[in-house]
């Protein structure tokens, strides 16, 4: 197991981390964590400034745009909130969402830890599997790789769906100091997670990543198939060539997408999608590019 974890880390260092070094300049912490955590001063706004840093009260009082300046915290703590529920097994056998989650988590941990930043993780299924305390260095990333390679504690009870809100509540009670938090999930989950996510966003810098597979959005026309609920295991027979069934399927996909986008937006976060057929390095470059854009 340890040998396999080392091989995986080396492969990601060669195939992803090395490529990112050639495409992204500077410290990776600043790519994802735009400002320091301590307010230092105010100054006049310039066109190069991030509009999210404008102090609107001072701007209104002085009738001239001003931005807040922050002191950079020398030691950053990052946390990975990892959804390892049953639905994450969906996708190609060699590269399902669970495989992409492992690769993404290890890559992020390696990028951040080698800069001297501490990285911790919460591995969550229908309950908290493991807590990996924040540490730095390559050995610690190797430990995380080893933890992710371990089998999950056991099969969920019939009819049980992932409670993402519970993971967020664990994070709220565990992460005390202001941190950079990556929430990585497919968001196939129960409801009521919007409020704890909003609280997490208020306390920390939060990057939300949804892992998807193309077949979750596009229904192949292959006749009769057995469809299984990714969370509960319930099975039904569906006729994929039936126009009415296809219409209802796409309507439901669109409704779920709009509801998810709305919940993420109301919580104050931005949704980043990474697909099972994406190139991981390219997907991370795009995520960094979007992080630098002002939120609408």
Descriptive notes:
It is built from 9 helices and 10 strands. The chain is α/β, with parallel strands linked by helices and 296 residues long. The protein is 41% helix and 22% strand. α1 packs across α4, α1 crosses α9 and α6 packs parallel to α7. The mean pLDDT is 82. The strands form 3 sheets. It has a 6-stranded mixed beta sheet with strand order 5-4-3-6-7-10, with helices on both faces. It has a two-stranded antiparallel sheet with strand order 1-2. The protein has a two-stranded antiparallel sheet with strand order 8-9. The chain folds into 2 domains: 183 residues, Rossmann fold (3-Layer(aba) Sandwich); 34 residues, no CATH class.
Map the helices and strands.
Layout: H1 2-23, H2 28-32, E1 38-44, H3 56-62, E2 66-71, E3 77-83, H4 97-113, E4 118-124, E5 128-135, H5 138-149, H6 164-174, E6 180-185, H7 194-203, E7 205-212, E8 224-228, E9 235-239, H8 243-266, E10 271-275, H9 280-291
Parallel strand pairs: 3-4, 3-6, 6-7, 7-10
Antiparallel strand pairs: 1-2, 4-5, 8-9
Helix pairs in contact: 1-4, 1-5, 1-9, 4-5, 6-7
Short description:
The chain has 296 residues and is an alpha/beta fold.
Number of helical runs? 9
> Which parts are unreliable, with pLDDT below 50 for 5 consecutive residues or more?
none
Order of helices and strands: HHEHEEHEEHHEHEEEHEH
What fold name goes in the CATH topology slot of the largest domain?
A: Rossmann fold
Number of strands: 10
Major sheet strand order: 5-4-3-6-7-10
Largest sheet at a glance?
6 strands, mixed
Shape, per Cα inertia axes: globular
């Amino acid at each position: 197991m340890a040998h396999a974890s080392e091989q995986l880390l080396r492969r990601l260092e060669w195939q992803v981390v090395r490529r990112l070094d050639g495409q992204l300049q500077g410290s990776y912490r600043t790519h994802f964590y735009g400002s320091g955590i301590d307010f230092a001063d105010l100054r006049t706004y310039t066109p190069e400034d991030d509009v999210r840093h404008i102090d609107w009260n001072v701007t209104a009082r002085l009738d001239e745009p001003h931005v807040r300046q922050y002191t950079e915290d020398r030691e950053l703590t990052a946390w990975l909130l990892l959804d390892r529920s049953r639905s994450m097994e969906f996708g190609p056998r060699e590269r399902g969402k669970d495989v992409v989650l492992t690769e993404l988590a290890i890559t992020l941990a390696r990028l951040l830890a080698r800069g001297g930043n501490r990285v911790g993780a919460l591995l969550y299924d229908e309950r908290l599997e493991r807590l990996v305390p924040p540490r730095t260095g390559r050995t610690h990333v190797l430990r995380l790789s080893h933890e992710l390679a371990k089998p999950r504690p056991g099969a969920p009870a019939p009819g049980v769906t992932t409670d993402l809100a519970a993971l967020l509540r664990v994070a709220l009670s565990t992460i005390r100091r202001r941190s950079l938090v990556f929430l990585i999930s497919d968001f196939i989950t129960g409801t009521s997670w919007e409020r704890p996510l909003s609280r997490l966003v208020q306390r920390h810098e939060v990057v939300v990543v949804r892992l998807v597979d193309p077949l979750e959005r596009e229904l192949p026309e292959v006749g009769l198939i057995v469809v299984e609920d990714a969370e509960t295991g319930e099975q039904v027979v569906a006729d994929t060539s039936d126009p009415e069934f296809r219409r209802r399927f796409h309507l439901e996909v669109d409704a779920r997408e709009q509801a998810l986008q709305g919940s993420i937006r109301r919580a104050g976060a931005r949704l980043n999608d990474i697909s099972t057929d994406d190139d991981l390095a390219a997907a991370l470059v795009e995520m960094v590019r979007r992080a630098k854009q002002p939120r609408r």
